[in-house]
Design a protein that fits this description.
By secondary structure, the chain is mainly beta. It folds into two domains: 6-328, Tachylectin-2, Chain A; 336-471, Jelly Rolls. It has strands at residues 28-39, 42-50, 60-66, 73-79, 89-98, 101-111, 120-129, 136-137, 154-162, 165-173, 180-187, 193-201, 211-220, 223-231, 247-254, 259-262, 266-267, 275-281, 287-292, 307-308, 315-320, 323-328, 336-352, 361-368, 375-381, 386-393, 398-403, 410-413, 419-427, 430-435, 440-445, 453-471. The strands form six sheets. Strands 23, 24, 25, 26, 27, 28, 29, 30, 31 and 32 form a ten-stranded antiparallel beta sheet that branches. A five-stranded mixed beta sheet has the order 4-3-2-1-20, with no helix packed on it. Strands 13, 14, 15, 16 and 17 form a five-stranded antiparallel beta sheet that branches. The radius of gyration is 22 Å and the shape is globular. The structure holds beta-D-fructofuranose.
Length: 473
């Protein structure tokens, strides 16, 4: 099995943007969360990792584990590419526990020898571990050697068990009409896989995308959900403003007919910096999601410091009717080191807020709106600019999130709220907004080169209740 070359790994050269309580590399590039699971007393998170530079490169699986979902310990790299089954990279995948053994299912990425990075093929592989630290690639790899129709994009297996059988979904792009689709496979033992077929497909390149990456499958409140990251959806009004999207379909998987009956695609996180999310089921029955706290089209100034990318906080997925939402996992409260504000006050105009450490603070703010045209904002300012702002316009029924340096804002429609609850998590170079307990979520990065100041602003007197906590990480 190929091994990591420790003489080439890189380390962090400057702490200025280092997160205090989010998963990040100790040096090198990170993208998608992979292999999320609970195994032998620990939560495990893996991630797409390039240890030799702060740029995307041949993908490894980085690895951390935690007893409580919020304090993470770095472990040795779990998967190193370069073996025959994954010559060009160990791409995204998922994990499952069977008979006391942890199995990883991942995509092997392969280039043809023509020097063209866009000319590749993909297969699916298994690796396993009994201690949750050391992984062995299965000798019978690949377990799925090629797609039925030889389409090029064929990746990111998400595995689960249903009624004594194992299933996995793959993200794919059909060869004939260039549309995103989800392929289903089934197996009795995780090693021998049988192709079932495509269970759903994009309605059009611009409406739902030409390629669906990173499918996730789970069941919540009696409904099946396929979440995925479609590429190519065209921006439409205040929707689909990122280069690639992340969202979900709620429906029912008919296992007999192999069809996923579902409602329309919806975005899940409306922020500038969210992609390739994956979730897993905790032992106490919660579906917990992490996202890549960035995306391929966003600038990452931390690259100058020897690292790139982070994962979002763990978020609990909740179903409200047919709408999926996210709230911070309850364990996130373990990161608090003390309450620094606890007050009820009137905000009228622009009020600065004094906290011990404005770049490591959790905010819990409830605004009672009194008029139909109320406007309210939370903002973080740097020396002479607004770095991040979250604005509620009651008349428009809309939240707008602004990120310094971005050409366009991001939006979510939430309606006319008499009470607005904002939970906001500020870390050194990120802010997560959770609006009205799952109604809308925004993931945002920011890069401050000096002190920052939190503000609350309103267009007329509004009563608010506010708690703020120092986040120790
Ligand atoms: C999504 C993605 C996946 C792929 C991985 C490669 O961000 O493109 O489809 O497996 O990243 O790093």
């Amino acid at each position: 099995m190929n091994e990591i070359d420790h003489s080439r790994t890189i380390t962090v050269t400057n702490d200025r943007y280092r997160e205090h309580y989010h998963i990040q590399t100790d040096g090198g590039w990170l993208n998608d969360p992979n292999g999320l699971c609970f195994f032998k007393g620990y939560y495990h998170a893996f991630y797409q990792f390039h240890p030799y530079s702060a740029e995307w490169g041949p993908m490894h699986w980085g690895h951390v584990r935690s007893k409580d979902l919020v304090h993470w310990e770095s472990l040795p790299v779990a998967l190193v590419p370069g073996d025959p089954e994954d010559s060009g990279g160990c791409f995204s995948g998922s994990a499952i526990v069977k008979d006391g053994r942890l199995y990883l299912l991942y995509t092997g990425h392969h280039y043809y020898d023509d020097g063209d990075q866009d000319h590749f093929w993909e297969n699916q592989n298994v690796a396993y571990s009994d201690d949750g630290i050391h992984f062995t690639k299965y000798a019978g790899n690949p377990v799925i050697s090629a797609p039925e129709d030889n389409s090029q994009d064929f990746r990111d297996p998400k595995v689960w068990e249903y009624d004594g059988t194992y299933y996995l979904v793959l993200g794919s792009r059909s060869k004939d009409d260039n549309l995103g689709r989800i392929l289903l496979y089934q197996s009795a033992d995780l090693l021998d896989w049988k192709y079932v077929g495509p269970i759903t497909k994009s309605t059009g390149q611009e409406s739902e995308g030409y390629m669906w990456e990173c499918p996730d499958f789970f069941r919540l409140n009696g409904k099946d959900v396929i979440a995925c990251s479609p590429m190519g959806i065209k921006a439409c009004g205040h929707h689909y403003l990122n280069l690639n999207q992340n969202g979900y379909f709620v429906g029912q998987l008919d296992y007999q007919q192999a069809i996923f009956h579902h409602l329309n695609f919806n975005e899940l996180d409306y922020g500038h910096n969210f992609y390739a999310a994956q979730s897993f089921l905790t032992p106490d029955g919660r579906q917990i999601q992490f996202g890549w706290f960035s995306s391929f089209d966003q600038a990452m100034p931390e690259q100058a410091d020897g690292w790139a990318g982070a994962l979002t906080l763990p978020r609990e997925l909740i179903m409200n009717g047919d709408q999926l939402g996210t709230i911070p996992a309850k364990e996130v409260s373990l990161l608090r080191s003390g309450r620094v504000i606890h007050s009820a006050r009137i905000i009228d105009g622009d009020q600065q807020l004094a906290v011990t450490d404005p770049q490591h603070t959790e905010w819990d703010i409830t605004v009672t709106t009194t008029g139909d045209d109320d406007q309210f904002s939370w903002a973080l300012t740097g020396s002479d600019e607004q770095l991040i702002a979250c604005h509620y316009d009651k008349a428009a029924g809309e939240i707008t999130v602004h990120q310094h340096g971005q050409a366009t804002d991001r939006y979510a429609t939430i309606g006319h709220c008499d009470q607005l609850r904002l939970r906001i998590f500020v870390d050194t170079s990120s802010v997560e907004f959770f609006i009205n307990d799952g109604q809308a979520t925004f993931s945002e990065r920011y890069y401050a080169n000096g002190p920052v100041t939190p503000h609350l602003l309103s267009n007329h007197a509004l009563p608010i209740a506010i708690d703020a906590y120092n986040m120790k990480g």
